[in-house]
Design brief:
The protein is an alpha/beta fold. It is built from 10 helices and 22 strands.
Length: 377
C-alpha cells in the first residue's frame, strides 16, 4: 500500500454505550467502502471488527480493534472500542491516538451511562466528534424527545441531518445544509438518489435548519458578522465554518442512519472526508526529548525527523503486537530509532495495517498514520 498524504488521513475512534450499534456502523462503513463484500454482523459472528473468539462467543466488543478503509483517495483508520464499562480502559488508550470520534447513540434509548462516560473521556482530550443517531428502524421513535435530550446533554450538539422516515418507512437521510434528501434506491444501500425533500418532511427540516445555521455561523466571526448584517450565507460558507467549528470543538454535528440496512453510510463517509480534522488540522503533539524528561511539541510533518508513540499493546505467544501512531517523518521497516522511554535505539520492522485480524504489510509508516508492528519475545 502506498503512503497517504497527511491531509488525506482520518483517525477516528468509535465509542458508545454497549449495544448502541457502534460496531455495526463500522461494519457498514467497511461494506460501503468496498473493504468487505457484505455487512458483518456481531450477532452471527461475521463481524470484521469483533474477530476475537471470546468476542464472537459473547457477541460484544471486548478490546479496541483497528480497520482501515480507502474512500475517495483518503485513508480512514477506524478504531472500534468496547461499549461496556468493564473495558473502558481501552478507550483511554485509543483516545491519545485519534483526531476525531463518532459517538453512536441509540435513537430508542438516547443518552445512556456509557454515552456520558465516553463523552467525558473525549472532553478530557478535547477530541472533536460526531454524534451518530442509530437504529432508526425501530418503531415509535420520538425524534423530538431524542433531539431535545441531546441538546440538554451538550448544547453544542447540532443536527446536520434528519432521517427520511423512521421504523419500516426509513429510506434515507435529509441534508439540512443542502436541503436535499438522499434516498436509497436498492436494498444494499449502495445506490442512492439525491432528491427534493418530500412535502411531508419539509416543514420539520426547515424548522431545524435555522438554528443549525445560527450554531454554524457562531464558529466563524466573519461569517457571524455577515449573518447579523442580514447578508445571505452560502452552503459552501456553512461547510467551511462547520469544519472550523468541529476542529475547535465549538460544535458537535448530529448525523443519523441505520447500519444494518446501510442507510446514511455514504453521507457519513463524505462528511468525515470533508469536515472532520486530519492530523494536520489537529496540530502539534507533545513528545519527550531523548536523554531526559524535557518535553517539546512536535508538528505533524512528513519532512521532520521520525517520531511517534505506542498507544496499545496486545500480548501474544509470538510476541507483543504494538499499535503505533507516527507523528512526524516516517518509520522505515528495518531501521533503528531512539526509544525515549528507555533511552536506547531499537530496530522497528514488520509494519502492517489491519482490517480486523487481516494484515496488509507496509514498507514504511508515515506522518499521521497508524499501524501495528510485532515485537518478538
Amino acid at each position: 500500500m502506498k503512503p497517504h498524504a497527511i491531509e488525506k488521513i482520518r483517525n477516528i475512534g468509535f465509542v458508545s454505550h454497549g449495544g448502541a450499534g457502534k460496531t455495526s456502523l463500522a461494519e457498514a462503513i467497511l461494506f460501503h467502502s468496498g473493504a468487505n463484500s457484505r455487512i458483518g454482523k456481531v450477532d452471527d459472528g461475521t463481524s470484521i471488527m469483533n474477530y476475537d473468539p471470546e468476542e464472537i462467543k459473547r457477541k460484544t466488543t471486548l478490546g479496541s480493534s483497528l480497520a482501515f478503509i480507502e474512500w475517495k483517495e483518503h485513508k480512514f483508520n477506524i478504531l472500534d472500542n468496547p461499549g461496556f464499562d468493564d473495558f473502558i480502559g481501552e478507550v483511554h488508550k485509543v483516545v491519545t491516538a485519534i483526531d476525531s470520534a463518532i459517538v453512536v447513540v441509540n435513537s430508542s434509548s438516547g443518552v445512556e451511562v456509557g454515552t456520558e462516560k465516553n463523552w467525558k473521556i473525549l472532553n478530557s482530550y478535547n477530541v472533536p466528534r460526531i454524534v451518530f443517531l442509530s437504529k432508526l428502524d425501530k418503531e415509535n421513535i420520538n425524534l423530538e424527545k431524542v433531539f431535545s435530550e441531546l441538546k440538554t446533554f451538550d448544547p453544542r450538539i447540532t443536527p446536520i441531518q434528519v432521517p427520511l422516515g423512521t421504523g419500516q418507512n426509513l429510506r434515507g437521510v435529509i441534508d439540512l445544509i443542502e436541503m436535499k434528501a438522499l434516498a436509497d434506491t436498492d436494498e444494499s444501500g449502495k445506490k442512492t438518489e439525491l432528491t427534493d425533500i418530500p412535502a411531508e418532511f419539509l416543514s420539520h427540516a426547515q424548522k431545524l435548519r435555522e438554528p443549525m445555521i445560527e450554531s454554524i455561523v457562531e464558529c466563524d466571526d466573519d461569517l457571524l458578522n455577515k449573518f447579523f448584517d442580514g447578508n445571505p450565507i452560502s452552503n459552501d460558507e456553512l461547510r467551511s465554518a462547520l469544519k472550523i467549528g468541529i476542529t475547535k470543538n465549538k460544535i458537535k454535528p448530529l448525523l443519523c442512519g441505520m447500519s444494518l440496512k446501510n442507510i446514511g453510510t455514504e453521507p457519513l463517509l463524505d462528511f468525515i472526508m470533508n469536515c472532520m480534522p486530519s492530523p494536520l488540522d489537529r496540530g502539534p503533539v507533545e513528545a519527550q526529548v531523548p536523554g531526559g524528561t524535557t518535553k517539546q511539541m512536535v508538528a505533524p510533518s512528513i519532512d521532520s525527523p521520525a517520531s511517534g508513540f505506542i498507544f496499545k499493546k496486545i500480548n501474544e505467544q509470538a510476541g507483543d503486537i504494538l499499535f503505533i501512531r507516527c507523528v512526524s517523518g516516517k518509520f522505515v521497516s528495518g531501521n533503528e530509532y531512539m526509544n525515549t522511554t528507555k533511552d536506547n535505539f531499537e530496530r522497528l520492522s514488520n509494519f502492517s495495517t489491519l482490517r480486523g485480524k487481516a494484515k496488509t504489510d507496509l514498507e514504511m509508516l508515515t506522518a499521521g498514520d497508524i499501524a501495528v508492528l510485532v515485537k518478538p519475545k
